[in-house]
Amino acid sequence: MVIRYHARMASTPAIKIFFMVTNTTYKRSAGELIQMIVTSTSTSPSTLTLELRGETDSGTVLEDGFRMEHFEFFDVTTSTFVTHDLFPGTCEPREEVYPDGVVELHKSKPLKTVQYMEDMSPLADPMRLLQAGHEYRIRLKPQKESGYAMGKADLFRGREHIPVNELPQAVVVELKSDDEVVLKVEE
After folding, report:
1. Which residues of 130-148 are buried (b: 16+ CB within 10 A; e: fewer)?
2. Domains of the chain, start order
3. Residue 13: CA count within 13 A, CB half-sphere
4. What is the pLDDT along the chain (187 residues), one digit of tens a residue?
5. Closest CA to 137 of 105, 100, 180, 78
6. SS3 for 163?
7. Which of 78, 91, 118, 145 has the most CB atoms lying inside 10 A of its own CB?
C-alpha cells in the first residue's frame, strides 16, 4: 500500500505502512499481552522526516505509544463499530520543532513502532471493550502530518530546535493503509 503526498519534487514521494498483531486470538482468561506492530518505510525520497504531532495531542502511529483512536475496530459478529472515548488533548500552537518531535523514515530501513493493545489509549482499554466470542477487523484510520524531504541531521543542522518560521517548506503526508487484521476474542 502506497501513500502519496503533493510536493514540487523530481519524483512523487511515497510511504508504505503495514501493520499486524502478534497474535490473532486473544484469550481473556490467559491474560495475554498482544502487541500491535506498525512498519513504515519511505519509498521516495530515500529519507523523509515527519512531525509526530500537529496542533492536537493525538500523536501518530509512527511513534511508540500510539492510541486506539488511530484504528477502527469493527465487530464482525454484530456488524458494528466499537466506540470509545477519544483522548481530548490539544496542544498549544507549536513555536519550535525539536528532534524528539520528528521521526525519520528510510527507504532501506523500515521503522517499526510497537504498542501493547491494552495500553493503546489513556482513556480506553480496547481489550476490555472487546467481547469474548466476537471477531474484530482492525484498520488504520488515515492521518495527515507535516513532512520534510530530508533527514533529521539536514533538517536541524546541529541545532537543538528550529523556530517554526525557519522550517523548510513542509509537505502534507497522509498516513493510511489498506491493511487490516482480524482479531478473535475468547474467554
Report:
1. beeeeebebbbeebebbbb
2. 2-186 (2.60.40)
3. 25
4. 333 333 344 445 678 899 999 999 998 888 778 999 999 998 878 899 998 875 556 678 888 778 887 889 999 999 999 877 666 566 667 788 999 989 999 999 999 999 888 887 756 666 777 899 999 999 998 888 888 999 999 999 999 999 989 999 888 788 889 999 999 999 8
5. 180
6. strand
7. 145
